[in-house]
Amino acid sequence: MAAEHPLSAKALPLDIPRDFIFGAATAAYQCEGETLTHGKGKVAWDDYLAEKGLFSADPASDFYHRYPEDLKLCRKYGIDGIRISIAWSRIFPKGTGKVNLEGVIFYHHLFAECKAQGVEPYVTLHHFDTPDALYSEGDFLNRTTIDAFERYARFCFEEYPEVTNWFTFNEIWAAVSNMYIEGTWPRGQRYRLDLAFQAMHNMMVAHARAVLAFDELGHRGKIGVVHALSTKYPDDPANPGDVAAAAAEDVLNNQFLLDATFDGSYSDDSLACAHHLAGIAGGSLVLPEEDLGQIKAAAPLNDCLGINYYQSNFLKAYDGPNDLHHNATGEKGTERYALAGVGERVSHPEIPRTDWDWLIYPQGLYDLIMRIKDQWPHYGAILVTENGMGAKDELVDGEVHDAERIDYIRQHLSWTLKARSEGANVRGYFVWSLMDMFSWTNGYNKRYGLFYVDFDTQERIPKDSAAWYAKASKERRLDG
Length: 480
Hints:
- The chain is an alpha/beta fold.
- It has helices at about 30, 45-50, 65-75, 90, 100-115, 130-135, 145-160, 170-180, 195-215, 240-265, 270-280, 290-300, 365-375, 405-420, 465-475, and strands spanning about 20-25, 80-85, 120-125, 165-170, 220-230, 230-235, 305-310, 315, 325, 335-340, 345, 380-385, 425-430, 450-455, 460.
- Strand 14 and strand 15 form a beta hairpin.
- The protein starts with 20 loop residues before the first strand and ends in a 5-residue tail after the last helix.
């Protein structure tokens, strides 16, 4: 018999400390627009989206021109922190070499406006947008990209002293999964777990080198990395096969990266699983001693971890062939995820799902935070850097009534605060996303924002969730 899967426990109401950050998140390629203007270099998405002929990331939410308006909305609605990513190719159009001064100045103006509006910027260096000149040569499988990333990071650290909160990468796991396992991104491949593990390792080396540079330069701020984490539960905890499946997918999605982040090395269990899965995929994993030394040296210098959380998974044993289908359209019930050598994800009718088949399981976020607290007590600080609900929001008589999103945010915030009340050093929560934006494989039918964007007029319209979030931020309470 499968284990019972409880829904959200009653953890309301909770007082919210005044120093807890109420944030919202964005990403350069998903909101800026101006993808090939103002000196910006090409990224792989530009040609990929044009070839598909489905949608374009230009103008997206036109944040390039409208950021003053968006930051004023932040101030008005109690949002005191904003995640922003720098578009690497807006600074270095080819990824390295000549600097685009117009791009450099744009981010100075953006950060100055953040300060003027009293909204603290949390800046990510890489959010799925490696310059095409590097991406086309293998992205982070090519070690020259590691060198280029370190140079780019050093430049940004020195150029933007006004930024005091930095993240190197956003969602290494999501990037490699979409590029080498699901094959849904530009030049993607499928079922190449060997390449996925190698790319994760190489990106953690790039992260380590950036952290070491940050320390060397004596930057006064804080630095960390953002991981997309997802708790993996055995479908039946009494079934050894299900337990093994959950453990294998945990290494793939969580443990391998967390080992490198906090321990600066890979545990024996992680290495055994990684080499086994790489072999099944027909390849191997190479971990040079120099890399391991750099990861080891950087580990104690991480000030914080960003957790992006959208779902957890229940795994059962699986001995069939690879069988993945990515639900990119919102046609509920079409997602399939079974990996040879790993396991099969299963859903349960008592656990709600979004239209994109993501399980709505807020306890999984609490379990992640408490796991990190217990397994890596030297973790520093935790920020929930993305969490939100995609939906097909509709504007009715000039309003968006998104009660489901309010309930989603309330539950996840409640579990986050429960972890904090039990001793986890959780400093803030950033809803994904500030406004509706371009979505990588969904275009514009999947909306996450607190603010509805009319993509024809670029008008921003506060949703009910924006008003709820503002009230929670002001009163420092979650209503029931």
